[in-house]
Amino acid sequence: MITKEEEKEFVTIIAESFLDYEEAQVYFTLVKQGTKGTIVKELTEELSPLKRTTIYSILNRLIEKECVKEGGRSNTTKRAKLFVAIKPSKVLRAFLIREKRKLKKLEEIELMYSDRLDNVYNKGIQLTQEDLHPFISSYLRPLIKNNWKVLSQNYFEGKETYGYDVFDYELKTPSRHLFLKGGGMVVFVFDRKIEQDKSTIEFSMTQLKRKGKADIMRDGTFKEINMKDGFTEICGHTFPAIILEGMFKRKKSFEQVGQTIVIPIKNKIFFVWSEDGKYEKEIVRTVLDNEKIPIIE
């Protein structure tokens, strides 16, 4: 005889493996009867409070899953129908074969369709010119005309309370072969001129570093990252920059993997990045054009 604790263990294992909990209860009750099987009346008595109609429904599901079969008629209870459990080792082996087939099919689907499905997904989430906040529309219009995609838009309007608004955009470049996400732009808009205000610029850079580090680490590409302050020359100007260094998994040293260009202009600070210098320059150009700042090639 097996103990109640062992029965609970078996039912739990079956429920976690290939049946739901009620199916596992009915199947294991039949397993205990071996090849003799039993009738619904006896199952109802043993598995109270499961109702008779519920047990019939469960038995039909177990027959479909090839865990139970009908075993003829009872000789003692008004010729009631008998139900017999199929041998557990046979059920487990059949289940394992089915799951391996499913896994193989999923691998084929992942290989053949994941990129195509992602393209459909990205087309569904990309924003049009009409979806953009009026403030940012003129900055992103040239990029959209050049086949850039705007994948997300988030903005925080806190100028009245905190003295600044924040606009955050994830962009996809026309290239289909970049390493990470493509590019992006974050804009802080203040209620005063901050172009020469070092403390405000440093505050904004700190805010962006904090958010950027959390987002990058969540992605799982790097084991560790560093963000250092630096400078970069682009479009004939020298701008502050946040240099991103990442330590890839299974590596022991950091390497530079990108940068964010910091462009303070009047009452705004633009943060611009892309995984490719060519596209990074394209974003900077549209910012400078909108702000009527000369571009020197």
Describe the structure.
This protein has 297 residues and is an alpha+beta fold. The protein folds into two domains: 4-86, Winged helix-like DNA-binding domain superfamily/Winged helix DNA-binding domain (Arc Repressor Mutant, subunit A); 126-290, Protein Transport Mog1p, Chain A. It is built from nine helices and nine strands. The relative contact order is 0.08. The mean pLDDT is 89.
What proportion strand? 25-35%
Number of strands: 9
Q: Largest beta sheet: what is the strand line-up?
A: 3-4-5-9-8-7-6
CATH fold field value of the largest domain: Protein Transport Mog1p, Chain A
Q: Round the Cα radius of gyration to an integer and report it.
A: 32 Å
Q: Please tell me the CATH architecture of the largest domain by its name.
A: 3-Layer(aba) Sandwich
Low-confidence stretches: none
CATH class of the largest domain: Alpha Beta
Number of helices: 9
- Please tell me the overall pLDDT: 89
Largest sheet: 7 strands, antiparallel
Helix percentage range: 40-55%
Backbone shape: elongated
Structural class: alpha+beta
Q: CA-to-CA gap between the ends?
A: 87 Å
Total individual domains: 2
The topology string of helices and strands comes to: HHHHEEHHEHEEHEEEEH
Break the fold down into its secondary structure elements and pairings.
Layout: H1 4-17, H2 21-31, H3 40-46, H4 52-64, E1 68-73, E2 81-85, H5 88-125, H6 134-145, E3 149-158, H7 159-162, E4 164-172, E5 183-190, H8 198-219, E6 222-234, E7 237-248, E8 255-265, E9 268-274, H9 277-290
Antiparallel strand pairs: 1-2, 3-4, 4-5, 5-9, 6-7, 7-8, 8-9
Helix pairs in contact: 1-2, 2-4, 6-9
